[in-house]
Specification:
With 328 residues, the protein is mostly beta strands. Helix content is 2%, strand content 41%. The protein has one domain: 5 Propeller (Tachylectin-2, Chain A).
Length: 328
């Protein structure tokens, strides 16, 4: 079975305190997860991706509709904006009867904004990853570039949850995947944002060969010479019954193998926890990582146990001093 439907069932001056005080907030044990930083306004969201523009505006896109949008001037107060697409591309109907898009990934390269996103429907892996580009990144400005990668019912993978990573050598890579045989990666042509024709290898990065197949939503960063693969594990999108959590592995090569703190390969159920349910924060996941002026942020959704499981925006800083990301 695939992931639960991404449709809804029904980021902060993170801490304006001295850096030393922030470091004091780093959990001392793996189970001491922090509360999200304070965010206000329109914070109902799912699968958020966020970046800071050159003008200082925070642009957030997320699952839903023609890809939903929020903006903030201070990373604390967020306001809903228009959908990314003023009209939804006609090809979406080949993969979704709604149609809507899920789990976008926004970045800025070569003087333009790129947004990869997913189109699918609940219970199937007849799915597609699309690409849109924009000169401003603002809602309504996006030009769809069509499909990048697809899967069908006979595939052993699911072409959703894309994340673009540009390495120091200017090689482009896209990780993606949900359930089935797990997280995959392909190489991308920087000139058009599509798969590189000279390398059609589909690499495997993470999977759960025994038990549940529930791993999805990859996001890769490089820190201090190592590559880190973040992924969401277990079941999303079921309010207070959600069991989502974020785990990470580390590798010396972009294509892996990614291993957890104990040396277990992420292709064999490995993964070191970064965020799990705690208090009213249920099922944190759908994460992205953003480098901001004060450090790295993990941006995610969670289900608020104090608000009937409403999906809300979570933001925390990450501390890398141990060689592994720790949320605080």
């Amino acid at each position: 079975m695939s992931r639960t439907s991404r449709t809804f069932r029904k980021r902060t001056a993170l801490f304006a305190v001295p850096a030393a005080a922030l470091l004091a907030l780093v959990p001392s044990t793996a189970s001491a997860y922090p509360s999200p930083g304070r965010v206000t306004g329109d914070i109902v969201t799912h699968d958020p991706t966020m970046m800071r523009t050159s003008s200082g505006q925070y642009l957030l896109y997320a699952t839903g509709g023609g890809i939903s949008n929020k903006t903030s001037g201070d990373r604390t107060a967020f306001r809903n904006g228009r959908d990314a697409f003023s009209s939804r591309p006609s090809w979406w109907r080949n993969y979704s009867s709604v149609p809507e898009a899920w789990a976008p990934d926004i970045s800025y390269h070569g003087g333009r904004y790129l947004m990869y996103y997913s189109v699918s429907k609940f219970g199937t892996n007849t799915s597609a990853i699309g690409l849109a580009t924009s000169s401003t990144g603002q809602p309504g400005s996006w030009t769809d570039q069509g499909t990048v990668y697809t899967s069908r019912s006979s595939s052993d993978y699911n072409a959703i949850d894309p994340n673009l990573f540009v390495d120091d050598d200017d090689k482009w890579w896209m990780s993606f995947g949900s359930w089935w045989s797990g997280i995959k990666m392909i190489q991308i042509n920087p000139s058009n944002g599509k798969q590189l024709s000279s390398n059609t290898t589909r690499y495997s990065l993470a999977s759960r060969p025994t038990g549940t197949k529930a791993v999805e939503a990859p996001f890769i960063v490089k820190r201090n010479g190592s590559y880190y693969l973040f992924a969401s594990y277990d079941v999303c999108c079921d309010g207070v019954r959600s069991t989502y959590k974020v785990k990470v592995g580390r590798a010396s090569s972009i294509t892996g193998p990614y291993r957890d703190k104990n040396g277990v390969d992420m292709r064999n159920n490995g993964g070191t926890p970064v965020l799990e349910s705690h208090g009213n924060v249920i099922g944190p996941g759908g994460q992205s990582i953003m480098k901001d002026v004060d450090g790295d942020l993990i941006v995610y959704h969670y289900y608020d146990g104090n608000d009937n499981g409403t999906p809300k925006l979570g933001i925390n800083l990450l501390n890398w001093s141990s060689g592994w990301p720790v949320a605080y």
